[in-house]
């Protein structure tokens, strides 16, 4: 077995090519656009299958440097924060609490499903924890953090492999089902976005196709400057928070810093140009999210799923069925059966089975076709990237004990 380590700049360039491959494939297969499958997901899965073929048939393991991906995550969530006005946050108060409550309930349900199915299948002790919220709601990061603890507690030597495989498969499933669920709800209930509301994340498919653009290099540089300043403040504040013993992801800190900045600076310096709700910020956010997602999916080592047996597939299939049922019969009704609720339902697929960026990508793919859903992009990242991480850590600590 030979190993190819793809360096950073080349990995970033390949991710762009992967995105365009997905965009072209979506155009060739219109059903992918109809079901709101993001271009980065289509291309990323195609690239992951290509690396799997190289591994299985040619004995070549390809791995990518992902430092650029982590930076793109900061740019994207900082952009979300820069678009968050106080009026949006106020409007999102009640929906936020509802979404937080039903997500906390699902966190418990997901772990109960994992425990029940693992017991029925006779899986080794500790495996159930890895097939629940550790890998699915928590994703790869939570899995890597908790796998050594589970290994020490239960003597499960392949804890990391099982957790990573579950997180990877969950990410794939979440990327594929979010758009179809939203499309079904929109068509079934004849929903539509509010008229003349601008997208806060991304650029509409119609605008992308028309090639008309009012963005200049000045507006892009101005937006990048503000974004970079927010990220730099986020870095500094994150170090203080970590030193205080609070484990908070860096991108969440940058998101909160950007929210504070966008709701204070324009009032203090009214004549200062600010990027909130500008096309330049939408383009930067869209670029960051798509390349991030392409890099995340193309770097998946799918060969890690082999050898883990039918049990993993069975548990993940049951988890998927439970998640879809919960979205259709709990999340959508609880969020008001509206267009925003349908978009949040697409995002909840990422929350429940994948990761926050997957959730945002699902929602972005839907809104590019059907229109803006401002509140969804405010409340879902706060729930999935902050509060649920804290709750998940508490639940996992209880399960491990």
Protein model, in words:
With 401 residues, the protein is an all-alpha fold. Helix content is 75%, strand content 2%. The protein has helices at 8-28, 30-34, 39-58, 67-82, 86-91, 93-121, 127-130, 139-154, 159-188, 205-210, 217-243, 250-262, 265-268, 279-298, 309-334, 339-353, 356-370, 374-400, and strands spanning 2-6, 60-64. It has a two-stranded parallel sheet with strand order 1-2. The longest helix has 30 residues, at 159-188. The radius of gyration is 21 Å and the shape is globular. The two termini are 40 Å apart.
Assembly annotation: single chain
Instruction: Please report the number of helical segments.
Output: 18
Which shape, going by the Cα principal axes? globular
Would you tell me the overall average pLDDT?
89
Task: Characterize the biggest β-sheet.
Answer: 2 strands, parallel
**Strand content range:** under 5%
Poorly predicted runs are none
Provide the fold topology:
Elements: E1 2-6, H1 8-28, H2 30-34, H3 39-58, E2 60-64, H4 67-82, H5 86-91, H6 93-121, H7 127-130, H8 139-154, H9 159-188, H10 205-210, H11 217-243, H12 250-262, H13 265-268, H14 279-298, H15 309-334, H16 339-353, H17 356-370, H18 374-400
Parallel strand pairs: 1-2
Structural descriptors:
401 residues; mainly alpha; two-stranded parallel ribbon; 2 strands; globular
Quick take:
The chain is mainly alpha-helical and 401 residues long. It contains 18 helices and 2 strands.
